[in-house]
Amino acid sequence: MIEAMPIAEAPFGIEVKADLTAQFSPAEKEELRRLYCQDGLVLFRNQKLSMEQQIDACSIFGPVLRGSRENYLVSNVHKDGLLGDRELLFHHDVPYVPAPYLGGSLHALEVDKGVSGTRFVSGLRALERLPAGLRARVEGLNALHIRPRVYTARSRLSDCLPSDNCAVHAIVGRQKETGRPYLFVDEEMTALVIGIAEADGEALLEELFTYLYPADEIYEHRWSAGDIIVWDNLAVQHARSAVKGGTRTLQRVTIARFGYWEQYPVDLATFEELHEVKNRTA
């Protein structure tokens, strides 16, 4: 019913040929969800979606947050764009909250040829490659994830401020729809392994990273206008190099049951208070 194939020259990911503005039947939606779960990443090309249309399309894959704080432009040129041009290490979105986002979607609105792509790695594939002994060792272990303050290296307890968010998650997660296990540690926000000596935890994380980030397991997507990628934020990580060489504006939609601000409303109150003070003194 849905035409799909592995993404050419990529270690994982499914390219789907479909018009995301179409009215899909229940069976077609189920097939799209199956393809999404298969590799944790689906690519659609030649799309032209408004934010609302992208939100509607992403709702096929899970609950979508509709607030402007969770859905926004990622841009190095747009006045309302976020994340600018700095490098982003491999990460899951907001793993430092109790309920990290379930998925994410980026839609290329305006991208110059040769500008920085987005890199993806699969925690599903990494877990499958673990030797039996290492797999047995990490089953049942938890890791602490911390809101980043230093963006060029992994988060550490010594970098934290007293009010910084953090959360504990299992190192081995399981895809809700399929039960498939995946690695849930990343090079940006995983601070330490809980319950073992710090040095042992550091060595364990570095060993796990060798299975997550080998060059031949990284899919770097070079954006063309009209591309949309939807990925499982728990099973798949993403990163990018510093943005150079031109315009890069992507439309971002978040798939989640709970937004960041719902889980940490104190941050929202602080944000709004500071914004009001700024307006009064401007």
Number of domains: 1
What is the CATH third-level topology name? Double-stranded beta-helix
- Give the CA-based shape: globular
- Supply the CATH superfamily name: Clavaminate synthase-like
Average pLDDT level? 91
Number of E-state strands: 17
Based on the structure given, which CATH architecture is correct?
Answer: 4-Layer Sandwich
Q: What does it look like?
A:
The protein has 282 residues and is α+β, with helices and mostly antiparallel strands. Helix content is 26%, strand content 27%. The strands form 4 sheets. Strands 1-2-3-15-7-17-4-5 form an 8-stranded mixed beta sheet, covered by helices on one side. The longest helix has 17 residues, at 265-281. The N and C termini lie far apart (57 Å). The mean pLDDT is 91.
Quick recap of the structure?
By secondary structure, this protein is α+β, with helices and mostly antiparallel strands. The chain has helices at residues 26-39, 51-58, 123-129, 132-138, 198-212, 260-263, 265-281; strands at 3-6, 14-17, 41-44, 72-75, 82-83, 88-91, 103-111, 118-122, 142-146, 166-170, 172-174, 181-183, 190-193, 219-221, 228-232, 236-240, 248-255.
What's the layout of helices and strands?
Blueprint: E1 3-6, E2 14-17, H1 26-39, E3 41-44, H2 51-58, E4 72-75, E5 82-83, E6 88-91, E7 103-111, E8 118-122, H3 123-129, H4 132-138, E9 142-146, E10 166-170, E11 172-174, E12 181-183, E13 190-193, H5 198-212, E14 219-221, E15 228-232, E16 236-240, E17 248-255, H6 260-263, H7 265-281
Parallel strand pairs: 2-3, 4-5
Antiparallel strand pairs: 1-2, 3-15, 4-17, 6-16, 7-15, 7-17, 8-14, 8-16, 9-10, 9-13, 11-12
